[in-house]
Amino acid sequence: TVEAPAPSLPENPPAARRLRRPLLLALMAVVLVALPFAAVGWTELLVVVEIFLLAVLGLDVLTGQTGQVSLGQTLFIAIGGYGAGLLTVKAHWPTWIAAIVPAFAAAAVAFLLGRAFLRLRGYYLALATLGLAVVTQAVATGVGKVTGGPSGLVGIPSLSLFGWEVFSDLSNYYVLLVLCVLGGLFVTNLRRSQSGRALAAVAHDPQAAAMLGINAARYRTGAFVVSAVFASLAGSMYAYYLRFFSPDVINVTVALSIVIMLSIGGVRSVAGPVLGVLLLQGLPLVGQSFALWQPLVAGLVLVVVLTYLPDGLWGGLRKLITGLRRTA
């Protein structure tokens, strides 16, 4: 008699697959919590990276999920920064309330602008939102009695949460880490939800989406509102961290840099914006003389990435890993 071969165990049992994701998330959480202690002296850079990551994550909802390119994120950063500063310095509001109220104001402004601006397509929309960035910088510089003019708004207090003053770089890092994690979870869950699928349909083919009963204008406006709220929170946290806010924070170069960060890293993911922000914000660390060439280097990197890696650095890295796995 011929004995039947013993059944082989599956290489990757379902239980192992279920445990892999929680273990990876736990490992990532440990790394993020311990990162300031491992990278001593870089905490200030990490805080700035987290602030810009909030703005880029918001733009990813609009650009990555609906395909609309906006250069006007600095308008909503200004609403958050100046709003939080004026409400705390002039009206003496609690700092956490002074960060939430401008976010609602930014959402209202985005709703009104979105109904008109998002009818445009392609570079027409980009030029219109670039105009918003130019106007924002000009108004912040010209209305000196309110904003402090070119000298900026000074004396902004640090964020205070239930009696705890978020003053040091380390405390700002952890508060912003919580905000970035919540923002990343929101963007990821939105992309996987029914609304995310509707946004993807609008980005791919608005006419076909309309035939399926999807209101393209409503979804585009909603994405614009979400991106504005993210940018407003980033502006408020920037003001609380520096205890100062000026037109230099919201100039046209910053507006372009936010779009470049998202394009370099890659859209429709959280890792892509993280890579883009780290790369662009980390360039000045190479040296003071190199920092003067940052716009040129960023532009060259953007051209190379868009030419050879249309999905961004993270998309290219994922394709490389997938190819190596198939080869193995």
Automatic annotation (TrEMBL):
GO MF assignments: branched-chain amino acid transmembrane transporter activity
Membrane-protein topology: Multi-pass membrane protein
Compartmental location: Cell membrane
Pfam families recorded: BPD_transp_2
Superkingdom per UniProt: Bacteria
TM regions (residue ranges): 22-39, 45-62, 69-89, 95-114, 123-143, 173-190, 221-242, 254-278, 290-309
Claim: Lipoprotein is one of the keywords in the record: no
UniProt keyword annotations, A-Z: Cell membrane, Membrane, Transmembrane, Transmembrane helix
A single GO cellular-component term on record: plasma membrane
The protein, known as: Branched-chain amino acid ABC transporter permease
